[in-house]
Design a protein that fits this description.
The protein is built from 14 helices and 5 strands. With about 325 residues, it is of the alpha/beta class. It is elongated.
């Protein structure tokens, strides 16, 4: 068995004595240590080395600890890395700035070894949980992409679904948590097709009634596969309901109108558009104009959300300029 790799902790402080003291305390606990003498060096280390936790002095020449923390938390690749701010005096304003920057904790000088190690252990334990969560999500994304790869006509479908869904949600002013859910759902919305035999999934002709019933269960299966992940709380309704129609004639639950979550309605509109503008076994890809003409006809039938189709048309027009 391989031994677990030690966590790497970045210590950034412009005073060498402080850096050395913190390094000595943490090296005794078995951690790997990276040292930075100012905020700029700390930022460079973050860009080129793996870091599990950062200890940042608030007042450093060049980039302050707050500025480094803000950059870490604004980067999707590093935003889950715990950041502890170190300061001599903790006043209310410092705490407010730290919270706004996304700092996870504060330590006040002089630092006691027991307090330092306890807080570091606690934050690293939390990071382990988030790393495991990301790993589980990664498995689901890989599974979803492997399903897409089976059909040459669906190449790039998941990427486009995520991109356009988020753009439409942004145009509508939806909050970040719903945009994030749509980004994830764009990749995993059809993951339930793992339960559909390839002979049905890739069948070039019309499906029998029994085959269609099997395909129409894929949103239910997909939601069930993703249900154990608490981080997919807002993704599950999108997976389950992205084949519903406004008039109640969709599946699997026959939801009608606004009973269908807006995020699911967004993914539906994008899904229909992507299907029409992609090649398939029985026709070539349509132009945007042709696709929206058909979608408008289907809006008149009561299938799709009229407002979302109109707004998505603006999104596509802007992207084609």
């Amino acid at each position: 068995m391989h031994e677990a790799k030690p966590y790497t902790i970045l210590i950034a402080d412009d005073e060498a004595a402080n850096r050395d003291m913190l390094a000595m305390m943490l090296e005794r606990e078995g951690y790997d240590i990276l040292l930075a003498h100012d905020g700029e060096e700390a930022s460079n280390l973050f860009a080129h080395r793996h870091v599990d936790l950062a200890l940042l002095d608030v007042k450093m020449p060049g980039h302050t600890g707050f500025e480094v923390c803000r950059a870490i938390k604004n980067n999707p690749k590093t935003r889950l890395v715990p950041v502890v701010m170190i300061t001599g005096l903790i006043n209310t304003n410092d705490r407010i700035v730290g919270i706004e920057c996304g700092a996870d904790d504060y330590l006040r000088k002089p630092i006691r070894r027991e307090e330092l190690t306890a807080r570091v252990r606690s934050l690293l334990r939390f990071k382990q949980f988030t790393d495991e969560l990301e790993s589980a999500e990664g498995v689901l994304f890989s599974l979803a992409l492997s399903i897409e790869a089976k059909d040459p006509f669906t190449e790039g479908h998941c990427t486009r679904m995520s991109k356009y869904s988020v753009e439409l949600a942004s145009a509508l002013g939806l909050p970040e948590e719903q945009r994030t859910a749509l980004q994830k759902a764009g990749t995993v919305h059809d993951i339930g097709k793992v339960a559909v035999p390839d002979s049905i999934l890739l069948k070039p002709g019309l499906l029998t009634l029994e085959e269609r019933k099997m395909v129409e269960q894929h949103p239910v299966v997909g939601a069930r596969i993703c249900e154990p992940l608490k981080s997919f709380r807002l993704v599950l309704p999108i997976i389950r309901h992205h084949h519903e129609k406004m008039d109640g004639s969709g599946y699997p639950d026959g939801l009608r109108g606004e009973a269908i979550p807006i995020t699911a309605r967004i993914l539906t509109v994008v899904d229909v558009y992507d299907a029409l503008t992609s090649d398939c076994p029985y026709r070539s890809a349509m132009s945007s104009e042709e696709a929206f003409k058909i979608m408008q006809e289907e809006v008149s039938k009561g299938w799709w959300d009229r407002q979302l189709v109109a707004e998505f048309r603006k999104v596509i027009a802007a992207s084609e300029k």
